[in-house]
Every structure is written in structure tokens, then in C-alpha cells.
Amino acid sequence: MRPEARRVTAFAQRYGPWAAVLGAAQGIGLAFAHEISRRGLNVLLLDVREDLLTQALRDVAAGAPGIELRAMCIDLAAPDVATRLEAIDAPLGLVVYTAMLARVGPFLDEKLERHETALHVGCRGALAAAHVLGRRLVARGRGGLILTSSGAGFQGTGWVAGYSACKAFDLALAEALWWEWKPHGVDVLALCPGSTATPGMLGNRPQLAADAMARPEDVAREALDALGGGPVCIPGEENRRVRAALDKLPRAKLVEVMGENTRKLFES
Q: Beta-strand (E) ranges in 14-123?
């Protein structure tokens, strides 16, 4: 068996037979659905955008013949999100949470209700997925959970204050569960990508060309390769170098640098 085939088989044995990708209709979530299916797992795609889910299913199916796919329309900000997740009947071995809402600009310029919706998607939805679906992984004694954080989550980051706080929550939750669930055979990973050319990112009109950002497919591939290693994955060698340099700064200076750079990135 060729090395690539052995790698795919080993991945499917550890994390199969089904994966659930939450926030799968576009961006990094859709890239995960593509990459996971290519590694031999059946995929359940979950998203609030039913119109985009239909096309996502077609696209993933075209790239992975023979893989079983399902779609589930779900509002991850809804109060009953845990109950909806309980209804999933697929034998899951891998759960990937990528759903998010990024509110860009001065904190007080955004309505409280919109901050709360982003909070529910970024934190409560991730918490529910980890608790409801993670319980199944621990019970079976193998599997993986990926929660998507961000470089903005390593410190408070102005101009994306609510988003930064949500991503700090996801980072801390993933790191804690990495330690708790390792003895149970479950791998947990906090994915912390930098600027990535997703519809959400580009929709905020950053002062950075799409071709200067990471590609979603590269982010997903590196995260899946990192699963089973340490608790945090920062995709991209340049991003890792920048993070290492930032972590050497005094805390106040770090917050100043991240806030100013983020403001410049998004301020039109």
C-alpha cells in the first residue's frame, strides 16, 4: 500500500466512519468537508444557510465519489441548539466546529443584539457541540474534536472585540478538553488560522488582497494533519513566526499592536 493510501486508511480508522462539520456551507468549513471526505470519512454538513448547503453537497460529492453525505440545516445561535444536536444519529468519530460571525469595527458601533448572536454562534454553539457530540466520542474511546479559534483569540484584539473574546473562549475550551480527553482516546485541537480568504473575511473588505491570505483548503489540510499532536494548530510557517514574535511582547504592547493592525486591516 502506498504511503498516501496508508495515511488515508489510518485517518478513517481513527476518526471514522462519520464526521460532522458545523458551519460547512462555505469558507473553512466547506474546505474541511472536502478534505475529510477525501480522507475516506462520510460527512454530515451542518449550516444555517440551506441554499448554500445544497451547492456544498454537490461540490463535495463531485470530489469524493463513493462517500456518503448528508446535510442538516441548523441555527447554531438558537436556544435549542443542544437538542437539535442530540438528534444527530450518525456514528460520529470526528466533529469540526467552524461556525462564526465576525463583527468588525468599534465595539459600540454594533448593536448589542448582533454581538449576542455572534456570542451564541461562537461560544454557546461550540460549547453545545463539544458537550453533546464530544460525549459520544469519549464514550466510544476514540475520535477527534476541532474547535476553530483565531490569532485574535490569543489576546484581546480591538476592532474585533466581541469576535476576539469568543475565539479566546474556544481556544481555552479546546486546550482544556485536549488534556481531559486524551486519556479517553479523543484528540482535541484548537485551530488558530490567520487571515484566510473566506467569504466572511472578504465580505468585511479587508485592506489585503485575497491572494495574500491563506487558502481555506490549506488551513483545513494542515489542521487535520495536526490532529493528534499538540492542543493548538497555527497554520502557515509565517503565521507561526509572527505568533512567536508577538508572544515576546509585554502584554500591553501586544494588545496595542494587535488592535492597531486590525483597525488598519479593516478601516476603510
A: 18-22, 42-47, 69-73, 92-97
Query: Rounded to an integer, what distance in angstroms lies between the CA atom of residue 150 and that of residue 55?
Result: 27
Average per-residue pLDDT for the chain:
95
User: Residue 138 in contact with residue 91, Cβ under 8 Å?
Assistant: no
The Cα–Cα gap between 75 and 120 comes to 10
Q: Which residue has the cell 471514522?
A: 16
Dihedral of CA atoms 4, 10, 11, 13 in degrees, nearest 10, equals 140
Say if residues 134 and 181 touch (Cβ distance below 8 Å). yes
pTM attached to this predicted model: 0.96
Amino acid at 65: P
Contact 239, 194 (CB under 8 A): yes
- Determine the Cα–Cα distance for residues 62 and 131; give it in Å rounded to an integer: 33
Longest dimension (CA), the chain: 58
Cell numbers describing residue 268: 476603510
Range of the domain at 135: 3-266
Q: With beta carbons less than 8 A apart as the criterion, state whether 69 and 42 touch.
A: yes
- The contacts of residue 138 (CB under 8 Å, 6+ apart) are 181, 184, 186
Q: What is the pLDDT of residues 94-130, one digit of tens each?
A: 999 999 998 899 999 999 999 999 999 999 999 999 9
Q: Give the Cα separation of 76 and 115 in Å (integer).
A: 14
Domain at 9, CATH number: 3.40.50.720
Number of folded domains in the chain? 1
Cα–Cα distance list, 216 to 41, 99, 249, 251 (Å): 19, 14, 29, 30
Measured CA to CA, the distance from residue 178 to residue 158 in angstroms comes to: 28
